[in-house]
């Protein structure tokens, strides 16, 4: 039996990158996986991949900017598979990489909606079936960018800081229902990684060299197992935790200052 046998999981943004890696890892461990993804093409592809592996999976078109859409995805999990045991909040919609003083209110609103608000909505919707079963696992995603104050990510850093606060609050309050809530701070070769690598041939090598382990992470092989740990009975006594799964990048950190930005401009 797999570590997640008889469990039902919902993964937002599971159509690619880290979300896909987590969804495939869950399927490999026996979970029925709801692919909560807005892109029907990639979402159905992952659904099919898990089925071909012998797992159970269902694509549910989900727009994380919509509370109603997120709640509908949770209902689909319960209606199709009888419960919802595991929630992974992975999806978000990025904004342009510009300096903080150039970030607009609309950019911040978009990031807060697709990251913090979406996580809030999904957690509160998933809480109902988890409370009824007196068992639940919630995995949120944090970022090393917030810790380093990464340049050009002011809105993203703000939202991810909120994710940690929400994770800890829910862990503190929902433990009485046997619901654990933890966060992962990952780095992996997802869509953004390959986009940057395509623009700069040296990016992949520099990225790997910055990590004590000397390589970049794989969404399924490196991030997936950490999510499985938090989603399974192995982590039954762990809650409110934030785990770096980044090849050790959080140890040295990194300098994200763009070239051409003067140290002093006054």
Describe the structure.
Helices cover 47% and strands 15% of the residues. The protein is of the alpha/beta class and 266 residues long. The chain has a single domain (8-245), classed as 3-Layer(aba) Sandwich (Rossmann fold), CATH 3.40.50. Strands 3-2-1-4-5-6-7 form a seven-stranded parallel sheet, with helices on both faces. The longest helix has 29 residues, at 105-133. The protein is globular. It comes from Paraburkholderia xenovorans (strain LB400). NAD(+) binds at residues 18, 37, 63-64, 90, 92, 156, 160, 188, 191.
What distinguishing features does this structure have?
alpha/beta; Rossmann fold; seven-stranded parallel sheet; 47% helix
The CATH topology is what? Rossmann fold
What would you call the structural class? Answer: alpha/beta
The portion of residues assigned to helices is 40-55%
CATH superfamily: NAD(P)-binding Rossmann-like Domain
Task: Please report the first level of CATH classification, the CATH class.
Answer: Alpha Beta
Put the structure in a nutshell.
The chain is of the alpha/beta class. Helix content is 47%, strand content 15%. It holds the Pfam family adh_short_C2.
Topology overview:
Elements lengths: L7 E5 L4 H12 L3 E6 L2 H13 L3 E6 L5 H15 L4 E4 L15 H29 L2 E6 L2 H5 L5 H21 L4 E8 L4 H9 L3 H7 L9 H13 L10 E4 L21
Parallel strand pairs: 1-2, 1-4, 2-3, 4-5, 5-6, 6-7
Helix pairs in contact: 1-2, 1-9, 3-4, 4-6
GO biological process, one term: fatty acid elongation
InterPro entries: NAD(P)-bd_dom_sf, Sc_DH/Rdtase_CS, SDR_fam
Pfam families: adh_short_C2
């Amino acid at each position: 039996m797999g570590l997640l046998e008889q469990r039902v999981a919902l993964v937002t943004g599971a159509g690619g990158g880290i979300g896909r890696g987590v969804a495939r890892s869950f399927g490999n461990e026996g979970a029925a996986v709801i692919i909560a993804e807005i892109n029907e093409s990639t979402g159905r592809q992952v659904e099919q991949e898990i089925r071909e592996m012998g797992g159970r999976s269902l694509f549910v078109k989900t727009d994380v900017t919509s509370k109603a859409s997120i709640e509908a995805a949770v209902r689909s999990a319960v209606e199709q598979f009888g419960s919802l045991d595991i929630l992974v909040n992975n999806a978000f919609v990025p904004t342009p990489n510009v300096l903080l003083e150039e970030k607009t209110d609309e950019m911040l609103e978009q990031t807060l909606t697709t990251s913090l608000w979406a996580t809030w909505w999904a957690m509160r919707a998933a809480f109902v079936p988890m409370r009824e079963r007196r068992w639940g696992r919630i995995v949120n995603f944090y970022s090393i960018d917030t810790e380093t104050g990464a340049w050009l990510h002011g809105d993203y850093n703000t939202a991810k800081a909120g994710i940690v606060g929400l994770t800890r609050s829910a862990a503190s309050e929902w433990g009485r229902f046997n619901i654990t809530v933890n966060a992962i701070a990952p780095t992996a070769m997802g869509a953004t990684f390959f986009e940057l690598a395509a623009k700069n041939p040296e990016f992949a090598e520099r990225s790997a060299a910055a990590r004590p382990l000397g390589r970049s992470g794989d969404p399924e092989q490196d991030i997936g197992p950490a999510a499985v740990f938090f989603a399974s009975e192995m982590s039954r006594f762990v809650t409110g935790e934030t785990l770096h799964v980044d090849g050790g990048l959080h140890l040295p950190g990194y300098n994200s200052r763009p070239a051409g930005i003067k140290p002093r401009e006054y």
